[in-house]
Amino acid sequence: TGKLDEAATVFEGLVALDPYEGSFHTGLGAVYQQRQKLEEASIEYDRAIALNENDLAARCNRAEIRVQQRQFDAAADDIKEIALRDPEGASGHSQRAKVLAMALASMAQQALEVEDEG
What we know:
Strand content: under 5%
Number of strands: 0
Oligomer: single chain
Mean pLDDT: 93
Helix content: over 70%
Low-confidence stretches: none
Largest sheet: none
Distance between the termini: 47 Å
């Protein structure tokens, strides 16, 4: 709802109370991502995934950051993991990952076309 300061306070408190609950790190990462604190968000997503390898939200959000930071191979790795962990594509995060995959493919195609022209 746009109350990022309040959300940050809540999630920082939750992480302090229970640093072993991955979803708290995912929530804090999402707040940081919304605030454009991408490094901090990535750290929280890394922690969330270390605690729960099946955290598709953390993987998908981290993939988005990696695309923004032009870390395309790392983003592709996250997208691949999402597909492996949700082969049915049942999660909304799987749908977002598919869109990211298409964006990566488009960027790669454009890069190849530029390379061919040069």
